[in-house]
Amino acid sequence: MSQIALVSVIIPSYNYGAYLADTLASLQSQNHKDWEAIVVDDGSTDDTATQIAALAQQDARIIYVHQRNQGVSTARNTGLALARGEFVVFLDADDLLSPAKLHAHIEHFLRCPSVDISYSTFRYFADNKRNEFFSNYRLDSQREWSRPVSGYGQDTFPVFIRKNNLPLQAAMFRRALLNRVGYFDPSMRALEDWDYLLRCILRGACMTGVDEPAAMSLIRVHSASATRNVAFVDYMERVFGNVQNEIDRLRSLGSEAAANFYAKLLQETLLDLQRRRARRLRKVVRHDVMSDIRNAGIFDMVNLYPLLKKWRFKFLSGYLRVLYERFIALFG
What we know:
By secondary structure, the chain is of the alpha/beta class. It has helices at residues 17-28, 48-58, 72-82, 101-111, 153-160, 175-181, 192-202, 233-252, 256-296, 301-311, 313-331; strands at residues 7-13, 35-42, 62-67, 87-90, 96-97, 117-119, 121-126, 129-134, 171-174, 207-209, 216-221.
């Protein structure tokens, strides 16, 4: 029964031509054969076009689309507009899927018609160590950071509003859900996956994990990885703004109780974020004060006096900390 379910795999690519053959090979190795791969070339300047032309000639399921560089969100939107499948996977151009992944998700959807987002486990691997897997992006741990969650908004939103709990490529989406949610925010070149998952949740998505250990997303880590080269904090306010827009939409539809539930959690998250930023700022200031005191010399009153005027009340705390450091260094 699962063999008649078409899966659209949307693959945005910007200068990742060197990885595309590997990524598409992982699709060609799938137990579930009824898929289409829509590779959206986001204005690459490498050999992406040549690479895909050769692969598409050999496999009609591979579709190549070129557009001027507009960012990953617009590239995914281009692919989504062309997708014909009942189910959709968003796969990065340098990542892989285990052979059982598509089949496991299709079977999950067929068993559970209320599920809109089916997700699997995921692992990270270094580009030069293909058989060594880790649970985190730093490639130094096997401890799971993603919290398994199942259910609708009131079950999943409290987890996802705190942080993105799921890499986008670990999930398969029912196309009917995506039709309700719409496109990715084209103004976002980072955190667009977190933003989209939150919007899915706020549009009534039911999410749950697939019970199949062999179904796995494999996320490649290398020096050119997009996640290494963006300042995520620049986009956080936009994510929270989009969440607020969804809450306002719920109010306009008369879903006051749901809107209040989400609004309360959003405000708690914003307050917690504000407190954490304040703590980080205090830590930075403390570091600067202590550094100035060390450079001046803890017993050099001539050089310390200007620092007292500069830092005022923060000076005493910093001075005592530096003095304590010196005491520990001398007497252990």
